[in-house]
Amino acid sequence: MDSVNSSPVHAAKKGPSIKARLSNAFVSLYEINKFILRFFKEAFLPPFEIKEVMRQCYETGVRSFTLITFTGFITGLIFTKQSRPSLANFGAQSWLPSLVSIAIMRALAPLITALIAAGKVGSSIGAELGSMRVTEQIDAMEVSGTKPFKYLVCTRVLATTIAIPILSTYTAFVALLGGYLNVATNEGTSYTTYWEQVFEPLTFVDFVSSLAKAIVFGFTIGIVGCYQGYFSNKGTEGVGKAANGAVVTAMFMIFVEEILIVQIAGWFR
Q1: Burial of 194 (0-12, 13-18, 19+ CB in 10 A)
Q2: Which one is predicted more confidently, 15 or 213?
Q3: Looking at residue 16, what is its pLDDT?
Q4: What is the pTM of this model?
């Protein structure tokens, strides 16, 4: 049996599968780039679907408001609580507001917002467009002469690109409020003193990099969710795969983009 498994015939069967996988990977990469270029080509040309963009902004932003509020507040509260013992070992509890503000503004606020949106909004976009593709609604729109790509894809990507930075800013504010609650309870720091210490270590680069992260993350969530749903197939199974693929791929891309933007921002500090 070993001689059969190690025969040239058996080895030859493995070769094409590897080549096929590489070929499929390059084809997928080409299709993704083509999809992104098509977005930039059609998103900024008339007619503009302003009402649909606003509706998608509502779905992305307002529908996530409660979850973002709770998560952001708990993040600031817990991070402050966990950081206090380390600073207390050096007698540097007074640095706690500055530490919290740097961590939240530079990393936590945009990252947490993006991860929550990837799970909630990204999966919703993937499942919605996937079900429309499976039920041939997108095909019907193309036959009727409308532009499904502009109406379905461009509006959702623009909405996530606009809404995520707004949500990220709100998350930072709520997280800092959570930090204030902990600091005021343990150190008795006043509200005015706390916010002065919060903004003291922050620079223009910190605000720009945080905003850039949120914009890039929002675009990534929208484009990945739309791509997964727009090209889904295999019936209801394809809808589930589109939703799952939208979440997993978006989260992976968010972490990669986080590393790149942090590195670029570090060059300007």
Answers
A1: buried
A2: 213
A3: 53
A4: 0.86
* Placement of tokens 């996988």 in the chain: 21
Q: At what angle do helices 204-230 and 123-134 cross, to 10 degrees?
A: 20
Q: CA 66, 72, 75: angle at the middle one, nearest 5?
A: 140
Specify whether the CB–CB gap between 217 and 164 falls below 8 A.
yes
CA-based end-to-end distance of the chain: 63
Question: Do residues 163 and 61 lie in contact, with contact meaning Cβ atoms separated by under 8 Å?
Answer: yes
Question: Dihedral, CA atoms, 165, 168, 173, 179, nearest 10 degrees?
Answer: -160
Q: DSSP for 142-193?
A: HHTT--HIIIIIIHHHHHHHHHHHHHHHHHHHHHHHHHHHHHHHHH---HHH
Give residue limits of the domains in the chain: 36-268
DSSP 257-269: HHHHHHHHHHHH-
Residue 170: the pLDDT is 94
CA–CA distance, 7 with 104 (Å, rounded to integer): 58
Residue 128 backbone phi and psi in degrees, to 5: -65, -50
Tally helices (H) and strands (E) across the chain: 13, 0
d(CA 257, CA 259): 5
Tokens of 159: 């909405």
